[in-house]
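Entry for the shared binder. Reason: the reviewer on the internal report wants the predicted structure included alongside the sequence.
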Amino acid sequence: MEPQTPASRASIRAAHAACLGVVGVALALVLRLVPVAMAQVATARLTPSVQSIAPGGLVTLTLGVSGVTDLAGYQAGIDWDDTLVELEAVEPTDWLGTTGRQIETIPARVTDHSIDFLVYTLPQPPGASVPGVGGSGDLATLRFRTRAPGQAVIVLRQLLLTNTANEPIAADLEAAEFAIIEPTPVPQPHIYLPYALRSR
């Protein structure tokens, strides 16, 4: 290795400074672009059809979002306590297709206590421009059968939202909660028969 002269060291420092300058410009551009895709913060929640229900009953939860713009697809992950409830069905809505985009789904991955599923809309052909949905809407419904008394919490573990440019949309997630209560026994009325009249 050749010894570095003051001139060579100055050249190296200048090259390092130039590289850092290029990296700084690139990072600035990235930081300027990222907030554009992440500017909107939506809210996603699971809403139960009832606040209390008896064991063995059916409860429907609706997965809805609000505050979205140009929404084109999502991936959801939901967890629950399988000693309290059992998933019977999940049904994506057709909301994503209401602007004219074609909806596709990926088969759900289901366990006794969780489900993960993906719903998206197909890219448009060159020259076509069909926006995603905006505002508020329902993404899917899930039907559970209750098993035992307790406080059931259905957790929206993740919800990855994307727009038509495949950029992420940030979202605050809210779980669902409802009570599973044994029905109170209804007391049966007592029926008193009148005394028979004695014959004279």
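Summary line for the report: The first helix runs from residue 6 to 38.
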